[in-house]
């Protein structure tokens, strides 16, 4: 069985085929460096061991391992996060092959050629054995393939473009911004740019800083505040203090403007594209401003209802086609 894995810093996204039907699953990253107590025997344990290190999934832990750094791509907790997602996806534990990703800055060198050493390092990292509280996780990873981030997300759009058209794919994740200018039919890559310091974590970290004098929260909890920033009832329940809510909302808006400006500055490096696609967990934060500032017609501007899955679904479609269109 082959599983496609977009192992981003904020969430692990999976896609696979089950009797011809495409299925997906998303699993958040929040792992602390110790085991947790499981009081309910009917629940799947979330205590893992890898190369003598212990981790557990804990969505509320303020001591969760930092994943918003490029080095996370080769870390022990990255491998644990992949196994955790697999174990909770509903897929029966078995021998599998996986296709994973690397940010463009890690995948390509200055000549737009694959960095063989990084790709090999990623493969070896993913193949490490993970135990589930003393027992094998049940998933044995065999062949590992590595694809660059962002580019596969545009597969469906690119196959439908005219020969002289090209697509600018803007992929904003929790840690990195990957931008790729790809020619129609995926016939070639005109230009790429990756900035490992531009990501939604710019907003996430500021929320944590604002709340530091009031309470400590995990990155996962801060991400949820960004997602639910317009839901007054949700925010009021999470932050009963009205002044604190105002500070958080103001911080989100201020850092969102900063994030948008940094993304637009990167896009200014590109020209000659005819279409734009925004993907990744931060797509909805920046899409409207990108379309407005680039003057790309709405018919040539693409964002999906759930842009977090664009990359992993594009990976699947590239490799074996999608039965659901």
What do these coordinates show?
With 325 residues, the protein is α/β, with parallel strands linked by helices. It has a domain at 2-149: ATPase, nucleotide binding domain (Nucleotidyltransferase, domain 5, 2-Layer Sandwich), CATH 3.30.420.40. The chain has ten helices and 15 strands. The chain has helices at 76-87, 104-107, 116-126, 155-159, 201-211, 219-227, 232-238, 242-267, 283-294, 310-320, and strands spanning 2-7, 11-18, 21-28, 31-32, 47-50, 53-57, 95-102, 131-132, 135-136, 140-148, 166-172, 177-183, 189-195, 275-279, 301-302. The strands form three sheets. The chain has a five-stranded mixed β-sheet, sandwiched between helices. It has a five-stranded antiparallel β-sheet with strand order 4-6-5-8-9. Helix 9 links the parallel strand 14 (275-279) and strand 15 (301-302). Helix 5 crosses helix 6. The model has no long low-confidence stretch (mean pLDDT 91).
Provide key terms for this protein.
single chain; 325 residues; alpha/beta; Nucleotidyltransferase, domain 5; five-stranded mixed β-sheet; five-stranded antiparallel β-sheet; 33% helix; 25% strand; globular
